[in-house]
């Protein structure tokens, strides 16, 4: 019963939050700090509704000067509410072009300044990546990427795609691995306290002086650090 009540209340709150975020984005369209504000509006009250406790261990990321590339694991659609509270200042994300047409969320996502990629068109995808590199180099803006490219459903990290690492090398900016503990299979929304989630940044990985020949090793290094980080979180929460 509690599970159903939470879903109904969350659905109503999503509409309220979307209205608030529309106002934010329409008053300052495509401002790269919109994502931080909109993420907080979606996330902070929703976590209370869901009975989830989130421990943010991201002070190092917040102290890191822009620009950088955040590489984070992607578990489910709940990430909107779970990770929204962790978005740092002037940070936009990469998303597939089809997100733009999701009612309410898609239009806010676009107006918040996030970068949409047409994965089915190689030329347009390349142009979007070049734009992203330019944004990082000249607009004091960081990029948030889910390198798996899709949801892993809390079943461990999927193989990484190249985009985030290519952008970081081309822009000469560090990569910050961000680990969100496995909540997909552990949260229990039918309980008053549905679970605890830890969101933690790992040590930045510098890309200065790297070329695209170094990309496979960079991807493997980042992935292995995140695998170890997620395993440590599982032990911490067990």
Automatic annotation (TrEMBL):
InterPro entries: AGP_acyltrans, Plipid/glycerol_acylTrfase. One of its GO terms (molecular function) is 1-acylglycerol-3-phosphate O-acyltransferase activity. Pathway: Lipid metabolism; Phospholipid metabolism; CDP-diacylglycerol biosynthesis; CDP-diacylglycerol from sn-glycerol 3-phosphate: step 2/3. It catalyses: a 1-acyl-sn-glycero-3-phosphate + an acyl-CoA = a 1,2-diacyl-sn-glycero-3-phosphate + CoA. Pfam families: Acyltransferase (PF01553). Signal peptide: none annotated. Its EC number is 2.3.1.51. Keywords: Acyltransferase, Lipid biosynthesis, Lipid metabolism, Phospholipid biosynthesis, Phospholipid metabolism, Transferase. Residues 68-183 form the Phospholipid/glycerol acyltransferase domain. The HXXXXD motif is essential for acyltransferase activity and may constitute the binding site for the phosphate moiety of the glycerol-3-phosphate. PANTHER family: 1-ACYL-SN-GLYCEROL-3-PHOSPHATE ACYLTRANSFERASE. Belongs to the 1-acyl-sn-glycerol-3-phosphate acyltransferase family. This is 1-acyl-sn-glycerol-3-phosphate acyltransferase. It comes from Rhodoferax saidenbachensis.
